[in-house]
Write a structure and sequence with these properties.
The protein is 30% helix and 19% strand.
Length: 344
């Protein structure tokens, strides 16, 4: 695990043109020039980074996966874009300022392109194209709208290592980097394949083996854990966060927000589950939901910590100790959210 969260009691932060200009102890605070936000007695922290979601959906929580794919095939791109916008606004109110959005609920090339086109192009939104889950015969990506990443389900319910290796090798010469869903419904060889492909992250890991844990502990690939999915789907187990951390792996947390098995938009709830069910400390969970999650989508140069030059994506908590966040399930503690220095 990296160095700690770097607490700075009784501090100030100066924001200029949407960026963090500088910060320091109150004893060195500069004179106020324009707006002064009083956060005395409160935690001021980076906005949450949700590095694994499936927001491009048309609902259908009570239906099957095939039903959800059908709804996406039928909806217009404009209506789909409106749904994504509404979900992003809800997440912002809960303190999430940066979101990765994956496709997945589409099978035809036209529907995949529609999904990619429905995702807003702006700072704070990262686009990932998944190979369709409903067609496990081969991996394919349209690469429309220049997705930052490509992803696929390497699992018994998805594509095999043999089906994925050749398409992923072909992807390595392109600009889109690789992510993989692995060890979702059972153990497998997804982690070794991901490391072979120099994947940015592997995601889910409910059934990761000791071999997988050891390999990730020696790699730079981020382990993205999704405890809300394990909770809502009644999987009967959570990813082995403690073992991964003890092995030296870097962990990120995300909601896996989707209408099928993780109907939540709340990163505070995810942090609560990580601490309660996965034996993470509050500090580890907070870092996993901010700077490590930013690394999992290659946005750590811009967000994930309060550092000079980064975007002023800031959350203020109605608490004087960050360790209250997982105890209270967090959402009610988020009192103010700033994106690019602008109050939301």
């Amino acid at each position: 695990m990296e160095a700690g969260i770097g607490l700075l009691p009784k501090a100030w932060i100066r924001v200029e043109q949407g960026k963090i200009a500088n910060y320091g102890p109150m004893s060195e605070a500069p004179p106020v020039v324009d707006a002064d936000i009083d956060a005395r007695g409160k935690v001021v922290m980076p906005g949450f980074v949700d590095c694994h979601t499936h927001l491009v959906n048309a609902g259908g929580m009570c239906g099957t996966f095939a039903d959800r794919c059908r709804l996406v095939e039928e909806i217009s791109e404009g209506d789909l874009r409106s749904r994504v916008k509404a979900e992003l606004e809800l997440m912002l109110r809960l303190g999430t300022t940066t979101v990765e959005i994956k496709t997945g609920y589409a099978t035809s090339a036209a529907a995949i392109v529609k999904c990619l086109g429905a995702v807003p192009v702006r700072p704070g939104v990262v686009l990932t194209e998944m190979s369709p889950l409903a067609d496990s015969s081969r991996a394919r990506w349209t690469l429309a709208h220049q997705p930052r990443f490509v992803d696929a389900l390497c699992d018994g319910d998805g594509l095999s290592v043999e089906q994925l290796r050749e398409p992923l090798h072909a992807m390595r010469v392109l600009e889109s980097r690789v992510k993989l869903h692995v060890c979702v419904t059972g153990p497998g060889d997804g982690v070794p394949l991901a490391l072979e492909m120099n994947a940015v992250s592997v995601e889910h890991l409910l059934y990761s083996s000791q071999r997988d844990i050891t390999l990730l502990g020696k790699s730079n690939t981020i382990a993205v854990l999704l405890p809300a999915m394990a909770y809502f789907s009644r999987a009967g187990r959570f990813a082995p966060a403690r073992a991964l951390l003890d092995a030296g792996a870097t962990i990120a947390l995300a909601t896996d927000s989707n209408p099928g098995d993780s109907p939540t938009h709340s990163m505070p709830f995810v942090i609560h589950l990580a601490v309660r069910e996965m034996k993470m400390t509050a500090e580890e969970a907070l870092m996993a939901a901010t700077i490590h999650a930013a690394r999992a989508i290659c946005e750590d140069h811009r967000v994930g910590s309060l550092a000079s030059g980064k975007d002023a994506d800031i959350v203020v908590l109605a608490a004087d100790d960050y360790r209250e966040l997982p105890l209270a399930m967090g959402s009610n503690l988020v009192t103010q959210v700033f994106r690019g220095g602008i109050k939301q």
